[in-house]
Amino acid sequence: MIRIDVEKTFPAIRIEARFEADTRGVVALFGRSGTGKTSLVNMLAGLLRPDRGRIEIDGRVLFDSASGIDLPPEKRRLGYVFQESRLFPHMSVRGNLEYGMRRAPRAERRIALDEALDVLGIGHLLHRRPRELSGGERQRVALGRALLASPRLLLMDEPLASLDGARKAEILPFIARLRDAFAMPVVYVTHAMDEIVQLADTLVLMDEGRVAAIGPVEDLTSRLDLRPLTGRYEAGSVIATTVAGHEDEYGLTRLAFPGGELRVPHVDAEIGAAVRVRIRARDVSLAVGQVGRVSELNVIPGTVAEIAAPAEGQRQTDVDIRLDIGVPLWVRIARRSLAELGLAPGVAVSAMIKGTSIDRLSLSRRKLDERTPMGDEEAPTGRLP
Amino acid sequence: MDSFLTPIEIEALALSLRVSFWAMVWSLPAGVAVAWLLARAEFPGRTLVDVVIHLPLVLPPVVVGYLLLLLLGTQGPLGALLQDWFGVTVAFTWKGAAVAAAVMAFPLMVRAIRLSFEAVDRRLEAAARTLGAGPVTVFATITLPLILPGILTGLVLGFARALGEFGATITFVSNIPGETRTLPVALYSLTQTPGAEGAALRIMIISVVLAFAALAGSEFLARRIRARSGAAL
């Protein structure tokens, strides 16, 4: 459990952040630039001193202004992966990797060098110098260096922000593997929603130095009132599923979610594995009444839960609708269709989704018993009519 | 084997090297410490320290030499202390010449090292802290290796300045053959001696060759350090 309650005043912004989050899995801090995400992580790491407050991780007090506790960074045993890799230029990759490893108390070393090299795919780089590495390699080495110090928690401050799209795609699976292979709790700072959807379990939304909302990723991303904060990402729904079976004949995988099953192109995961999918609102179409034979792989019955008032600046031709298909599902249709179909809260509809338009994001191998994959069951049902 | 150099020249050359070497050895730790203070620490009187350190650059060397004589001469307050506590006499000895050279070279050395301190990416130090290294370890394993090129530059500048030291030296420790007659002092003596133009010319050439050798050697070392460290200095 992370318990944080800190205040710090800067000339430009006042940070007043308080939240509690489960340290199993990935906690993502999300918000615009300049909302204090990095400052908050630096306070966790001990690199920045809060004016007042208390920081506790898994029962261990790292900072408490009331009792004068302020552990220095080297005593906190938190790994930190920075936006710029910050590798030591005068050491080889091996020297960098071993820097934290050698300083970790022997009894607490739980990650072997070979294992980390294997997971991160950096074994062949050991004798190189940091400046001889590509951006992606550098960031992988930085991950390994932080990991090998066997920290109690890994802090990552936009570790992908300095990489281009291809490099990002190269690193993301490594972070997911590291989370799964070493059961390492992670606090992940980003302003990219796609990274959150792929990695995070818990989302902490920051706004103007404060925590605006906290909850499961699936919940917060489907909440309309948080659109101003999450909406920079294209509107859609995130659904937690588990692999129910494979249809090898057609190269498909069936994913179970509380409202039924989704068919998507083959997912390389064993049955029972948790997979998170994201469905963009514009990729869903609606039908009322009996649906004939359609080419869409997924035709899912549901009811209209909410029709969103158009957001400011949004094109007035479209309207967002939240369906209840067992979980919330956002749909974007033309306003003309809304009128023609006579949609209103409570109307039964069928949602049609092409299998290929579904992003299968989190290929986590975590098992059902390790966490609740049906994150939406925790959603307050009161918001559904 | 008869060498190229006369015994007198060898004596002056060896003395110059010895004086400059010890001047550097003794002032290096202080130079690093002061450079660190000026680059990193905030303390009252910081500007004053900065000014005092730089005084030898702007004062006439003769003035510095005379100050040293007042302070460190056998009658001077510090000179008496050194004599009583350590039995060390610096006035009119080669040790005094080394002190004069060190004082005159100090600002150059501090400036070079300070610049390299300021060029160190402090985010690397923060990263090392998060990896479990305390402040002293971070200094030894991160900061010091990264400022090595700057330390070398400071040493070379200081060494060259020490080799050339004349005004403060002759004022403080005079011109004693074999004790304080370094190359510049020897050259000065020869120019004052009728008919010694040839000998003076030879000393001048020795000085030039020595300066070249020092610069070339430092450049070679600097390249090796840079290649090894990857530091952007």
Defining traits:
A: 385 residues, alpha+beta, Rossmann fold, OB fold (Dihydrolipoamide Acetyltransferase, E2P), 6-stranded mixed β-sheet, 21 strands, 34% strand, B: mainly alpha, MetI-like fold, globular
CATH class of chain B: Mainly Alpha
Q: Roughly how many Å apart are the termini of chain A? A: 33 Å
Q: CATH top level of the largest domain in chain A?
A: Alpha Beta
The multimeric state of the shown protein is heterodimer
The fourth-level CATH homologous superfamily of the largest domain in chain A is P-loop containing nucleotide triphosphate hydrolases
User: Which structural class do you get from the secondary structure elements of chain A?
Assistant: alpha+beta
* CATH fold label of chain B: MetI-like fold
Domain count of chain B = 1
Average pLDDT figure of chain B: 89
* Number of beta strands of chain B: 0
Q: Describe the largest sheet of chain B.
A: none
Bulk shape of chain A: globular
Radius of gyration of chain B: 20 Å
Overall pLDDT confidence of chain A: 83
Q: Please give the share of residues in helix of chain A.
A: 10-25%
Q: How many domain units of chain A?
A: 2
Strand content of chain A: 25-35%
Low-confidence stretches of chain B: none
Report on this model:
The complex is a heterodimer of chains A (385) and B (233). Chain A has 385 residues and is α+β, with helices and mostly antiparallel strands. Chain A folds into two domains: 2-220, Rossmann fold (3-Layer(aba) Sandwich); 236-366, Beta Barrel (OB fold (Dihydrolipoamide Acetyltransferase, E2P)), CATH 2.40.50. Helices cover 22% and strands 34% of the residues of chain A. Chain A is built from ten helices and 21 strands. Chain A has helices spanning 37-45, 73-76, 93-103, 113-120, 135-148, 165-181, 193-199, 217-221, 227-230, 335-341; strands spanning 2-9, 14-21, 26-30, 52-57, 60-64, 69-70, 78-81, 153-157, 186-190, 202-207, 210-216, 236-247, 252-257, 260-265, 274-280, 284-287, 298-307, 318-324, 328-334, 348-353, 359-362. In chain A, the strands form four sheets. Chain A has a six-stranded mixed β-sheet, sandwiched between helices. Chain A has a five-stranded antiparallel β-sheet with strand order 2-1-4-5-6, with helices on one face. Chain A has a five-stranded antiparallel β-sheet with strand order 14-13-12-15-21. In chain A, helix 4 runs antiparallel to helix 5 (135-148). The radius of gyration of chain A is 22 Å and the shape is globular. Chain B has 233 residues and is an all-alpha fold. Chain B has one domain (7-121, 135-232): MetI-like (MetI-like fold). Chain B is 79% helix and 0% strand. Chain B has helices at 7-40, 46-58, 61-72, 77-86, 94-119, 122-130, 135-164, 167-173, 183-191, 197-229. The longest helix of chain B is centred in the N-terminal third of the chain and has 34 residues, at 7-40. Chain B is globular, with a radius of gyration of 20 Å. The mean pLDDT of chain B is 89. The chains are: A alpha+beta (385), B mainly alpha (233). Chain A binds chain B through residues 45-47, 72-74, 76-80, 82, 84, 86, 88-90, 99-100, 103-104, 129-131, 145-146, 149, and chain B through 121, 123-124, 126-134, 137, 141-142, 145-146, 228-232.
